Amino acid sequence: MDSGAVTVARTGTARGELVLRESGGHYEVISNGVFLMDTRAGESERLLVRAALQAVPPGARLLIGGLGVGFSLAEAVSSTRAAEIVVVEIEPALVGWHRDHLAPFSAGALGDPRVRVVTADIAAWLRDTDERFDAICLDVDNGPDWTVFDANAELYAGDGLALLRSRLAPGGVLAVWSASASPAYAQRLAAAVGPVRTLAVEVARGEPDVVYLARHEVENPV
Ligand SMILES: C[S@@+](CC[C@H](N)C(=O)[O-])C[C@H]1O[C@@H](n2cnc3c(N)ncnc32)[C@H](O)[C@@H]1O
């Protein structure tokens, strides 16, 4: 966290306090006391979406879990490969900040006609929907081993992985962002979804960011 940053917005939520801080024209989001995202970099958040879209045919239905400062969504709308984009974000206040403070970073993406923003917990939303996606990009935490809320841990194991797989179209791809490598998670992902590709992105602060890409392979009909 930037110690020189000033708080420009804060709101209480059922999950703890959500805070937006600014320093030198850049913003950081702190949720429940956990640093989640800032506007300074974004390379791996863009790669999350770019790599997923490259792995599926054009005209894809894309689901993004976690709006954050909007880098992943901006990448999605900059591509012609996504025909429909659903973004599920748990914090309504954060979605609102994209009308002012964070607008330069999402760069109009929320107004793109292909985009539907849903304000919900992604696990609950996935359980309730029967929609299927060619690509699901999950970036709601600092990674499988560092979740912002305890409840999010279910997304990275057992039933949560099965739920995510069940919302993939045949041949679809699940892409998951992590602030550090998690070999145990990569194994669970491969077992639950399918073959995993691991992409690492060097970052200034130390350990590389990681994007895991798992393809839900369709079994050959006999
Ligand atoms: C690390 S940020 C996402 C960064 C984003 N990829 C970007 O480009 O800025 C995580 C986001 O997920 C949201 N989030 C956390 N838990 C969630 C959940 N269970 N369901 C939906 N959104 C969630 C947070 O409020 C936050 O906006």
What key phrases describe this protein's structure?
222 residues; alpha/beta; Rossmann fold; 11 strands; 25% helix; binds S-adenosylmethionine
- Uncertain segments are none
Radius of gyration computed on alpha carbons: 17 Å
User: What fraction strand?
Assistant: 35-45%
Helix-strand sequence: EEEEHEHEHHEHEHEHEE
CATH superfamily: Vaccinia Virus protein VP39
Main sheet characteristics: 7 strands, mixed
Shape, principal axes of CA atoms: globular
Percentage of residues assigned to helices: 25-40%
Number of DSSP strand runs = 11
> What is the rounded distance between the termini?
55 Å
How large is the count of helical segments? 7
Mean pLDDT: 95
Tell me what the CATH architecture is: 3-Layer(aba) Sandwich
With strands numbered from the N-terminus, the spatial order across the biggest sheet is 7-6-5-8-9-11-10
Number of domains: 1
- At the third CATH level, what is the topology name? Rossmann fold
Give an account of the 3D structure.
A hairpin with a 2-residue loop joins strand 10 and strand 11. 25% of the residues lie in helices and 36% in strands. Helix 1 packs parallel to helix 2. The radius of gyration is 17 Å and the shape is globular. It has 222 residues and is of the alpha/beta class. The longest helix is centred in the N-terminal third of the chain and has 12 residues. A seven-stranded mixed β-sheet has the order 7-6-5-8-9-11-10. It has a four-stranded antiparallel β-sheet with strand order 1-2-3-4, with no helix packed on it. The site of S-adenosylmethionine (SAM) has 25 residues, from strand 4, helix 2, strand 6 and helix 5.
